[in-house]
Amino acid sequence: MGKNLTSRTEDYSKWYNELVVKADLAENSGVRGCMVIKPYGFAIWEKMQAALDKMFKETGHQNAYFPLFIPKSYLSKEASHVEGFAKECAVVTHYRLKNAEDGSGIVVDDEAKLEEELIVRPTSETIIWDTYRRWIQSYRDLPLLLNQWANVVRWEMRTRLFLRTAEFLWQEGHTAHATKEEAMEEAEMIMHLYAEFAENHMALPVIKGTKTESERFAGAEETFCIEALMQDGKALQAGTSHFLGQNFAKAFDVKFANKEGKQDYVWATSWGVSTRLMGALIMTHSDDNGLVLPPKLAPIQVVIVPIYKGTEQLDAIAEKIDSLVKALREKGITVKFDDRDTHKPGFKFNEYELKGVPIRLAVGQRDLENGTYELARRDTLEKQSVPAENVVTTIISLLEEIQANIYNKALQHREASTQSVDTYDEFKKMIDSKGGFIAAHWDGTAETEEKIQQETKATIRCIPINVEPEAGKCMVTGKPSPYRVLFAKAY
Amino acid sequence: MGKNLTSRTEDYSKWYNELVVKADLAENSGVRGCMVIKPYGFAIWEKMQAALDKMFKETGHQNAYFPLFIPKSYLSKEASHVEGFAKECAVVTHYRLKNAEDGSGIVVDDEAKLEEELIVRPTSETIIWDTYRRWIQSYRDLPLLLNQWANVVRWEMRTRLFLRTAEFLWQEGHTAHATKEEAMEEAEMIMHLYAEFAENHMALPVIKGTKTESERFAGAEETFCIEALMQDGKALQAGTSHFLGQNFAKAFDVKFANKEGKQDYVWATSWGVSTRLMGALIMTHSDDNGLVLPPKLAPIQVVIVPIYKGTEQLDAIAEKIDSLVKALREKGITVKFDDRDTHKPGFKFNEYELKGVPIRLAVGQRDLENGTYELARRDTLEKQSVPAENVVTTIISLLEEIQANIYNKALQHREASTQSVDTYDEFKKMIDSKGGFIAAHWDGTAETEEKIQQETKATIRCIPINVEPEAGKCMVTGKPSPYRVLFAKAY
Questions:
Q1: Structural domain boundaries enclosing A480
Q2: Nearest chain A residue (CA) to B79
Q3: Do A66 and B36 touch (CB under 8 A)?
Q4: Could you say which residues of chain B have pLDDT below 70?
Q5: Which of A246, B17, B95, B107 is the most buried (most CB within 10 A)?
Q6: For residue B238, what is the domain's CATH number?
Q7: Which chain A residue is nearest to residue B109, measuring alpha carbons?
Q8: Total domain count, chain B
């Protein structure tokens, strides 16, 4: 299997597109902007789902399922939400097809026109808050901590596999609370949960922060986010958690009786991560040889490739491998013994490198005689010969080491790519050359933010939650600024 | 919590509708025909999913994800498929909304009309086989054993929660094979897998069989099914597995080179079960007091209700319960200690009966003194006093006993409701009175089948796989018949 992968320095964007397809993660479908997630890619997403789902449940959330369709009128009920979402979306107008009278095929039946159009959900706040009105009467019904795993559709004009597709998979949490403080705590807690997931499972270092008003979710009063930096110096928003105030409760008339019997509107949050995380995962760790996966999310953690001539040698290897496979599985390690006789070892080595399998063991006649395995780690491509009696413990510690190593490598890259600048000239140069995160002073106005975006394509990724107070002057207008905010070009 | 549940004898259909809502399983949404699956209902579905997903993976299947939308032209490619599915479905015709010029709200933007309409998938054979054409070139690429968990939409005119909804959740397996025999084996294997799941996890006895030609899936050459019988004597199709021949391969031009290098069309299967299984589960076991759940699928297997006056008594109970909860959780048992002070024990007893929690423990001051628990099982409503030292082992064996007991009860009901009849008059009387499965002779023609359906509303549920040869005469036409087939009215 020749990889023929464009190198990152040659064309980062092309490298990404090729890698997603060649590593069998996803591909474009016959439907504009909609992707097919292939089994290998989906297996990674399932591991992400499992880890996140566990974390949601451990923090008291339950899963539920709400309709795919949203009546058009629901979208209009929250004023800023409609501005953000009632634009590019898939609209269902009819509910029947029929055979064309001229025999040319099937056509939409004009008589089956919906009285009110249905929108394929771009996000579910409206349909969920319409439901919450029926579920919430009293403080005893609160908090309501729900999540759903679902597909959503946003009719993007320019799409890229995982990063921006018309249909994508995500989870969306929607919680309801009796007090503002509790809702705000929930939104913040989820930001920390997302960061923990990104760092511990994806080996993805992230910066936690809040969005500026112009970058907030449509309908939110505060948006918390985690922001990551890709190898090409562009940022990627990896997850958002919104404090929605009482906006949706007011729009959908969701009131509750508090302990004193007084009626009040319910406080809300919503939060989500999507298959976009797959894009972040791929772009953060992978190299010119293919995918590099964190062991915690790798569908195959260890692959064993036999090197043999004839079935006799293969049988001898297979017999030896059998107990090793069992021993590794007992330790909860996912292992694949690739004994296909249709492909040569070199082909298999290439394939598993491309697919980012963290550890590869090769075993041939000489290894059998010496009682060793040849072990190769995907992150550094280093090889070592390991005595059979140590191989299980070596693998266990190496999987942990790889997980930590790729995190540290990504962290170092981010730190090396984060600069403070004080003048707009410097800023523009930096953005045009190496990119990265740029900490700069800003006057706090939407106009200045927009001017910077127009002129440089950089946006304010976030105001980091641990930002240090530092009186300064906006690099554009010279007006006073209390701290630096983080700019970058972003995916 | 007063249950106020209509009894089954009074109105079985009303009993079902009320139970689904009152037990917090699901409810109708603001979108016609689309349901909201509530957290308690979804938790049951998640358990079904987990068990099935494990079984699919153990039999070599992998998950993937294909687009929600299907271009209209795809549906037309397989002649009988289009007849079956290109009818009542949600049609996306536009991809943008805009503000109305008269300020009256948002309207569909006529300029954003799709060149080709997109259908929200009613099932995914067409989009998947369009993809398989790119994935399959050689026998080395086969078999391809994929499954997806997804939402699908069929624009049903009359809907009922779980049983028939416009949108529902399901899994759909789509496999590709090099030979007819292998595809047929796969389709049959899945029927057995579904039956095993239904019987072992849902405690739902099923009859395995094949469908007659008129009842087959649109595009299938053979449809295997599992059929269950509800308490009201109506049958419910609980899962189907289709041998699709080369129909979709031909429609989408999916060929492969076999070992001899010769090109041939690929053989296919597809199979699915849906949230309809929730309806089957509810209707099979539940009674006039509410839901009865098999322990293997119950979100809460054991609930503990304290009976106390004042916080001092509650604290004493809570202290004692703490170690019991831990001991049960260590055994993998899901347990809830309901110490809410907002509701009385009687209310809680009613609530957990309604929600079908298999075992309820009550513990009060006297139990503390005597070292006992009051244990109630949901299936028989029997109570017993259990010494504290035996309670964990009693619970473990009782959970198994309940699982077996409700299966046996359902099996006995089915056996008592299965009759052989020889004349059409007898048949009509039986269908109109007690219903149930009726084994009768049929001449094998679609006309007779349709006549029976027109006149009695009964359909042929299946030709059981273990049907015994028995020469007879069709009860309607008197023509020869080689064996009895199974009729019933069905959901």
A1: 418-488
A2: A105
A3: yes
A4: 1-2
A5: B95
A6: 3.30.930.10
A7: A87
A8: 3
- Give phi and psi for B226, each to the nearest 5: -120, 130
Q: Do B76 and A106 touch (CB under 8 A)?
A: yes
Supply the ipTM of this predicted assembly. 0.96
Looking at residue B82, what is its pLDDT? 78
Q: Does residue B209 sit in the same domain as residue B324?
A: no
The residues facing B336 across adjacent strands are: B303
Q: Please write the tens of the pLDDT for every residue from A225-246.
A: 999 999 999 999 999 999 999 9
B277 with B309, same domain? no
What is the pLDDT of chain A when averaged over all its residues?
Answer: 96
How is residue B491 written in tokens? 């959901």
Q: Write down the pLDDT at residue B81.
A: 76
Residue B2: the pLDDT is 52
How close is the nearest chain B Cα to the Cα of A255, in Å?
Answer: 18
Separation CA A276–CA A437 (nearest Å): 20
* DSSP type of residue A7: P
Tell me, yes or no, whether A319 and A197 share the same domain.
no
Q: Do B151 and A155 touch (CB under 8 A)?
A: no
* pLDDT of A76 above 90: no
Judge whether A120 and A58 are in contact, CB under 8 Å.
no
From the list A65, A82, A96, the residue facing B155 with the nearest CB is A96
Residue B271 counted as domain residue: yes
pLDDT at residue B1, as a whole number: 47
Contact call for residues B334 and B299 (beta carbons, < 8 A) = yes
Token pair of A416, please? Answer: 């090396």
Report the CATH number that the domain containing residue A477 is assigned in CATH: 3.30.110.30
Domain boundary among B254, B285, B316: B285
**What is residue A266's three-state secondary structure?**
coil
Closest approach of B41 to chain A, Cα-based (Å): 8
pTM confidence score: 0.96
pLDDT tens across A400-455, in order? 999 999 999 999 999 999 999 999 999 999 999 999 999 999 999 999 999 999 99
Chains A, B: CB pairs < 8 Å: 180
B37: closest CA of chain A, how far (Å): 5
Which residues of chain B have a CB within 8 Å of the CB of A62?
Answer: 39, 42-43
Single out the residue in B398, B428, B452 at which a domain terminates. Answer: B398
